[in-house]
Each structure stands twice: as structure tokens, then as C-alpha cells.
Request: fold
Amino acid sequence: MPTKLVLGLQHGDEGKGRVVDDIAVDWADVVVRFQGGGNAGHTVYDSDGNKHVTHILPVGVIISNELNTLKKYKHNEVKRHITNVIARGCVLNVFDLYNEIKELNIDIAPDDLQISGYCPLIEPTHILIDRLKYQGKLGTTARGIGPAYSDFYARDSILFKDLIEDPQNSLFKMQNKFFKFQTDLAQDGHVYPLLSDSHNNLLNDNFEFFNKWIDNFLEKVDYIKQFIVKDESLIIDFYNEGKNILLEGAQGCGLNIHSNNYPDVTSSAPTVGGALNSTGLNHNQIDEVIGVIKAYKTKVGTGTFPSLCDEESGDTLAREGNEFGATTGRPRKCGWLDLDEVNQAIKMNGVDHLCLIKTDVFTNIAKPFVYHKKNLIQISKINSVSIKDKSFVNLLESIKDKTGVNRISFTTGPKRGEIVWD
Ligand code: IMP
Reply:
């Protein structure tokens, strides 16, 4: 009954999705997203080489779809089953979840996807607050993540199970919050342009808007409801049944709400601690923590970036690495691998195993560096991602030496299977 946890050790966008996919395909019975919401963008390739991006769904849904559509799974002829779980530490936008399932065009049943009824909902008010107050200030993804978690910690959330048990009261609560926010805005002299361009008609317009919105919302809830489970002890039950559990981190430790980077962070804990809180597993029940790092660093949003690289190298990394947000499309700032932040994440999470991603992109850099102990250290140009390449082996050895983690796997390309496991 082993449990593996995949975490990003940088600022998100390390390539966790493809690592989770690679492990899940041969090994996992259960794949669990445990924090965050649709702010993540996990890119994976199926066994036919088709690209898929998930945001809130665990990446195991792509494998479930392949198994369900009976496309023969190429590494293993035995038909397997994977249960994908969205655990209670995640915040849920019903529309985004519905659209994600439809856009992925996946064949999944309640047996393949289980969503905790304890997940708090992302409400329209949360999205408005995020857009108006935090998108500009903090560079958030504008998905309503922070305001949804604010309500959760204030114990003012509507959980999915509340919506099922008492829809009338839940909708009433949601509507009141929405109108209160609109009224506060109007009092401050603001009119939210997407909802109304007329100050006087604000409440009327929004009443109409909200009624239309509710009809649409309930239609989507009706579909999503089939995946909602009671979740009194969900992941523990899987653990006790002896299932192989794979926990899929989103974002990265540099964005941990409990880190020194506050407030330039997300509103959840993409850490071992976050995983335990959300799943109910205890620390003895996590057998392996796999920390994913990119051979360079990327970042979106506000905050310091000590290892930011020169413009020419940054442009090359952005171009060759296609460094644009999978959720927002925003260009990511590029810099050198910051081993100080990686070490901090390793210390905090007890990482057993590193996985180095996108070194193939790094081979385009003529004069590469890593950042360690607040210094830039020039390393030899990496010619190819192969253990036959001395400069690449030196990079692996140097990372092992500077982090104290002796197990390091690496990817050779973006597709499923293009990974050399240590
Ligand atoms: P929020 O999570 O939308 O509230 O955004 C807070 C910060 O986290 C912003 O700097 C975002 O750019 C960043 N962020 C959130 N999710 C991701 C992600 O999946 N990858 C990279 N950055 C992220």
C-alpha cells in the first residue's frame, strides 16, 4: 500500500503533470489532486502522442479515458483501472470543471472520478474579487482561488455537499454574497463593466444576470453531481484497501501560502503538509516524495526572482521551452535553476527523489548557470540529455551534491515514457 507524492520544488510549471502521468500509467490505482483549483495547468501526452492539459482534474483521467475507450495501453497489455480523486483541499469552479471534462472529450464514469463533497465552491463573487482586487496586484490567475480560500478559512464557504443537501439555502447564500459585493462596489463608485455599464440599473441588471446564471449553474451541477462522494475518510479507505496512491501536487513550494514569499504566493499549501491535511493520510503513510525541478526556473506573477537570467538566455529558454502559462497563456519569466529555493523545499518536505525536467531545452544555452548560495555558478554547456554526455552527468552530480538528494531521474523529452528513472 505505498503512497507516492509528486511536488513542484520551484514556482509551479515544473512539469509535474507529465511525471505524475508517467508514474500513474504503470503503477497508480488512485491519483489525487489535493490543493488548489483550476489555476494549475498540467500538460500530458497520451500513448498516441496527443497533448492534453488538465487544470483541476487529476492527470490520471487521461489514462482512465484511454482504458475506457479500449485503446490498447502500449506499455502494458493488462487492462487496469484508475480512480481519480479531487480531495477536499481543492476549491471547485463548477463551470470550469464541467468545461474541462467536455473539452478534454474524455469518457469517464463515477467509478473513474470521485470528487469530495467537502470541496468548497468557487463562487462568482470570488472570481470578481480576484479580477478586481488581486489580478493586478499579485498577478493571480484570476480564477477566484484566493477569495474562495478566504471564505473557507472564515468558515463561510458553500461546500459541494451543502449544495446537494440544501440547494435553496446554498444559492441564497451565494446570491446574497454576490449582491452585497455589487452594492459595496456601487457605493465605492465602481460598476463592474462585464455585468453592467449603467450605475442606476446595477441591481436590476445583476438580478437578471444572477437568475440566468443560476439556471446555467444548476444544469452543470446536475452533471457534476454524479462524481461527488461523501468523503468521510476517502483516501484512508483506499490506503487500507492496499491501493497504490499517487498524490499530484499543483503549483510549487515557492508559491506555498506558508512560505516567506508571502504575499506573492497562491492560497494553498503545495507541500507534504498540504497533502496530509487534504487527504487525511498521516506522515508515516507517505512512502516517497518526488520533487520535480526544471533545469532552469520560470515564474509568473509578482515577487522577487534572484536567479533571473540575462535577456538573451531568457528569450531562448522561453522560446525553446514554450514558456507560456498553460492556464492563462501569460509569458513566464525565465531564470537559472535556483538551488537555494530547491534546498528549502527539500528541507521542508523531506524529498527522497528528484526529477529533472526540460534539460533538452537547456541544451540550447551556450553559457549556462545555476544559482547556489546566492551566487551564479557557470557550468559547462549541456550537449545532450544522456548519461553518455559528460556535461550532463556533471550537472546531475552537481545537483546531487548541492541538494544532498542522491536519487535523480530525468526526462529526455515531453512525451509519455521519455523519462529515465533512477
Ligand atoms: P492564484 O493561485 O491564482 O491566486 O495566483 C497566485 C500566484 O500563484 C500568482 O503569482 C500566480 O501566477 C501563481 N500561480 C498559481 N497557479 C500557478 C501555477 O499552476 N503555475 C505557476 N504559477 C501559478
